[in-house]
Amino acid sequence: MKLKTLTLAIAISLLPSIPRALEIEKIQLPEMGDSAGALISPVEEKEFGAAFFRNLHSQADISQDLEIEQYIQSIGRQLAAHSDNPSTPFHFFVVMDPNINAFAGPGGYIGVNSGLILLTEAESELASVMAHEIGHVTQRHLYRQIEAASKMSIPTVAATLAAILIGTQSPSMGQAALMAVQAGSVQFQINFTRDNEKEADRVGMQTLADSSYDPRSMPTFFERLQHSTRYYGKGIPEFLRTHPVSESRIADTRGRAETYPYRQYPDSMGYLLTKAKLYALTTFDKNAAMQHFSTLEQQGTAEQRAVARYGMGLVHLQNLQFPAASEIFQKLAEQYPNQPQYVAALARTAMESKDNQKANQLFAQAVRNFPNNDAIKIEYTRYLLKSAQPQQAKNILLSLSDNQKQQPFYFQLLAQIHADMKQAAESHRYMAEHYYASGQTDDAIMQIRLAKQEKNLNYQLQAILDERLNFFLSEQEQKKIDD
User: How does pLDDT run across 91-129, given as a tens digit for each residue?
Assistant: First the structure.
């Protein structure tokens, strides 16, 4: 099949804009369809998205905090269920990056930077950004732009796209990543059309309203972003570079929003707690963080003041001030027994302070009270490993919901469990899966080879190791062919 040159017209919904240092204009992509016929198949799209997400793990700081991930997934699921195509598969995640940005890659993978979440002043503002990205996906703006053919494999394209994504945050890292995945000069241009943006705004606002979020939040957030540009100078956020916010665009979204009846849209506890945790995790100056939460603790509703105290407790915990943190979390857990974040923080404080008896009691009780809470199960698993109880840790880990069992942290914990149980081959096997899920195929191959060197392998495990090694080597070879 002959290679053709492709120019894409895609903005933030695929990836953020490309820095000038990379001088990327074009790329050669695999055949995914044409303007008149069938587009990429569902199976290919799923593989493309999964490969894209794996490569993001190796180049960006994808949040592994399940409390944060559970929240962003819950709001994403609510929006997706009320989108114009609710059968579309979506995967929502948070990138721990202070830059104001959000993006949607292939396969419905939608990422939101922690910096954008912290910038929002209401949950509906965050929902408006995500609804816009969902609109780009359901309208298939990415695939409607792709009309060229190539022999490049899905893993290589996914790696290239991920390299470009990290390049928007660090041009030098992005250039190095691009050179690693493809020889020569890789050129790529991403720029959605004005019609694409308008369409995503329109369908996104409908999704927003149908999902019980405030449609007026979309123009409100756009307007605040536009006003904030005067303070950025040349350092304009990626969201604004790839998502130009004009007066006409604000006016258009505001006009649409005004057609919906006005009412109050209170923020959920999940939103408030997630913002508090992200602020505590990402603020370098802990004294400033404590002052921030102390100020919030003096205002708002009882629940909002409680969230501020939760933030103060997290700062104490990060500063290893265990008695102060424990006192705050203990009171919160007693006052709000149905809020899992408070009891989880109390148990985590006991674990970090090495109060093993209290930690075990709190975690066990939390798992009983919140049997479907994967975040608590992960924390309990880590506690059981620290207290040399690998079998119990395995039992808890295996009870996670299926959508968590493909994450890098899941395989890493299984590897640690089997290492503690003196099962070296199984430990290497799961470390291989951890590396592969993190976009590090070379390390995955090494771990499989280490596993195969272990003695007394049973037939089933030997077959699994052979299959995975062949799979990893085949993917690695395909990348070499593409280069």
Answer: 999 999 998 888 888 889 999 999 999 999 999 999 999
CA distance 132 to 114: 17
Which residues pair with residue 110 across a beta bridge? Answer: 92, 104
Q: Going by C-beta distance under 8 Å and a sequence separation of 6 or more, which residues neighbour residue 149?
A: 1, 2, 3, 4, 30, 31
CA 174 to chain CA centroid, Å, is 19
| Rounded distance between C-alpha atoms, residue 116 and residue 364, angstroms | 35
- Distance, in Å, from the CA atom of 213 to the CA atom of 265, rounded to the nearest integer, reads 7
Tell me the CA distances in angstroms from 443 to 265, 322, 439, one per residue in order.
Answer: 48, 38, 9
Helix H, strand E, coil C: the string for 407-433 is: CHHHHHHHHHHHHHCCCHHHHHHHHHH
From 150, 151, 159, select the one nearest 182 (Cα to Cα). 159
Report the pLDDT value the prediction gives residue 233, as an integer from 0 to 100. 55
- Provide the 10 A C-beta neighbour count for residue 23: 11
Q: Which residues are catalytic?
A: 133, 201
CA-CA distance, 68 to 62, in Å (whole number)?
Answer: 11
Instruction: Find all residues with CB under 8 Å of 295, minimum gap 6, and list them.
Output: none
Domain boundaries, the chain: 20-257
Helices (H), 246-301: 247-257, 269-282, 286-296
Residue 397 DSSP class: H
> Parallel, antiparallel, or unpaired: how do β-strands 91-95 and 109-113 relate?
parallel
Q: Using alpha carbons only, how large is the chain's radius of gyration in Å?
A: 24
CB 225 within 8 A of CB 116: no
The pTM assigned to this predicted structure is 0.84
Interior angle at CA 245, CA 10 and CA 11, nearest 5:
10
Give tens-digit pLDDT for 42-70.
888 888 889 889 988 988 899 999 999 99
The gap from C-alpha 135 to its chain's centroid, in whole angstroms, comes to 18
Q: What's the pLDDT score for residue 243?
A: 61
